[in-house]
């Protein structure tokens, strides 16, 4: 185990923040930020949120707005439209909306009379707080698992529509019966920060034989084996991110472990039609190197 692992993670997130500050005119993609942090792209965004309390996209926008506020206050010769374009906005109207939403002043009002005390409050970043949340983490060897898979690509709110199609396939074929098979969900990014059309979620159920060609779009796939950390989440699926962010902030930095380049995934122990929402059980798997 490395010395002071928590500080090691702090430095990696700080390195990303510094890179953003020094490259505001560049195309700051999630893939590039993941490389700078030396994290898998499947996990970087959640680690960043756990440490800063905001998404990397919001951090980049806020940092660009910070520079824009300096331009407005101290470079009176610069036109607002030029400052807006430099900040990455396509129009001064979009810039004005984002600026006022962030600083409670329009760009022109800020230029005339900046409210610096309120401005400073926007840059006091606070990590997400989880209180004294208990965390029982088991490190296990996950065996390679053959699954029937249906890919969802689109708005997170429509995942249940895809799940309904998968259930219909199960009923029509008799394969991967819900009572005797395991059901998994694999999100490839955080739905809260991913553009709807780019959000992918795989609905999976374990199988013994390959899936035959079908009209449902279900196909044979494999969840790869390897070392995983597992935590059990109790309660609503709407609150899964509470457990996920707590893991990234509290357990992972102190464990000496590194995340593998594969998404975290969920094993649904029971379902909402079987138990009350408060009694839902979901095992969350974090692939480790």
Automatic annotation (TrEMBL):
UniProt keyword Transcription present: yes
Domain HTH araC/xylS-type, residue spans: 14-113
Single GO molecular function: sequence-specific DNA binding
Pfam short name (any one): GyrI-like
Keywords: DNA-binding, Transcription, Transcription regulation
Cytoplasm among keywords: no
InterPro entries linked to this entry: AraC_E-bd (IPR010499), GyrI-like (IPR029442), Homeodomain-like_sf (IPR009057), HTH_AraC (IPR018060), HTH_AraC-typ_CS (IPR018062), Reg_factor_effector_dom_sf (IPR011256), SmbC-like (IPR050908), Tscrpt_reg_AraC-type_HTH (IPR020449)
Name this protein carries in UniProt: AraC family transcriptional regulator
Organism, scientific name: Cellvibrio mixtus
């Amino acid at each position: 185990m490395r010395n002071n692992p928590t500080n090691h993670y702090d430095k990696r997130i700080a390195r990303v923040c510094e890179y953003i500050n020094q490259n505001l005119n560049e195309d700051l993609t999630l893939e590039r930020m993941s490389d700078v942090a030396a994290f898998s792209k499947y996990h970087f965004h959640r680690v960043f949120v756990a440490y800063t309390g905001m998404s990397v996209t919001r951090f980049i926008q806020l940092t660009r707005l910070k520079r824009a506020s300096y331009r407005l206050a101290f470079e009176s010769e610069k036109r607002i439209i030029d400052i807006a374009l430099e900040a990455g906005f396509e129009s001064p109207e979009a810039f004005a909306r984002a600026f006022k939403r962030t600083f409670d002043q329009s760009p022109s009002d800020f230029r005339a009379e900046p409210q610096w005390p309120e401005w400073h409050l926007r840059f006091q970043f606070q990590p997400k707080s989880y209180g004294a949340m208990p965390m029982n983490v088991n490190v296990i060897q996950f065996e390679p698992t053959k699954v029937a898979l249906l890919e969802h690509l689109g708005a997170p709110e429509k995942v249940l529509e895809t799940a309904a199609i998968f259930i219909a396939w199960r009923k029509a074929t008799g394969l991967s019966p819900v009572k005797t098979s395991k059901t998994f969900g694999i999100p490839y990014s955080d739905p809260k920060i991913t553009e709807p059309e780019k959000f992918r979620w795989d609905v999976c159920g374990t199988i013994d034989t390959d899936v035959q060609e079908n009209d449902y779009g279900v196909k044979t796939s494999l969840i790869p084996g390897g070392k995983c950390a597992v935590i059990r989440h109790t309660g609503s699926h709407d609150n899964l991110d509470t457990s996920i962010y707590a893991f990234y902030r509290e357990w992972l930095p102190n464990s000496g472990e590194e995340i593998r380049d594969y998404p975290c995934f969920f094993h649904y122990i029971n379902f909402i039609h079987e138990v009350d929402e408060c009694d839902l059980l979901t095992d969350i798997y974090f692939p480790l190197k």
